[in-house]
Amino acid sequence: MAETTAKYQRVVLKLSGEALAGAAGFGLDLAKVETIASQVKTLSDLGVEVSVVVGGGNFWRGVKGESQGMDRATSDYMGMLATVMNCMALQERLERLGLDTRLMTAIDMREVGEPYIRRKAMHHLKSKRVVIFGAGSGNPYFSTDTTAALRAAEIGADAILMAKQGTDGVYDSDPNENPDAIRYEQLDYMELIQKRLKVMDATATTLCMDNRIPLIVFDLDVYGNIERAVKGEKVGTFVGRA
Known about the structure:
This protein is about 35% helix and about 20% strand. With about 240 residues, it is of the alpha/beta class. The strands form two sheets. It has a nine-stranded mixed β-sheet with strand order 4-3-5-2-1-6-10-11-9, sandwiched between helices. A two-stranded antiparallel sheet has the order 7-8. Strand 1, helix 1 and strand 2 (about 50-55) form a beta-alpha-beta unit. Helix 5 (about 145-155) runs parallel beside helix 7 (about 200-210). The longest helix has 25 residues, at about 70-95. It starts with 9 loop residues before the first strand and ends with a strand. The model has no long low-confidence stretch (mean pLDDT about 95).
């Protein structure tokens, strides 16, 4: 294994469910999943301890069910199950590339993955296994962004890599609607909340702020950005205290 040149030695990579769907926007595009997996392998080859939190929006969103009259808690649990399907697909592609992985779920489903236990997760990371966190936090009303912040705090991650699809950072307004939108190179946590910038929800942002976990927001569609972010290169937007 090559000596690491990474700035961050232990990271949480946050992926949206839609990032695994590719251009279709729904379901799974295994070619896209494999592209992401190959970038995760690059981090592992650098000696970085990698964990991943994946959303489930390519299959189901809790707020979608609520908008159609479904009980919110039930809808959220359905979304948690959707994340596990994504985690399994990512795990399969990672293992095809020769990586040792563990899928840990916040909802007990032992035939699919290990139950989430903090100390065990940290042991896997120290053993250079890629740990994939599925089923969100196991609680309704909490997003997978909050899960990423919670797991990052629990395992002592150095940073959260917030990989966005088709967005190269944080803007003062929607760049798809406003051609004059300005991209921020650096922000403080409170600015995200006060300016209501749609990067992650307020609960997740507060968790990051309280635990001083930096957040790097970048475009997942540019191959190699995950590696650039973990090396501390200027990519996307840095959120945190410099």
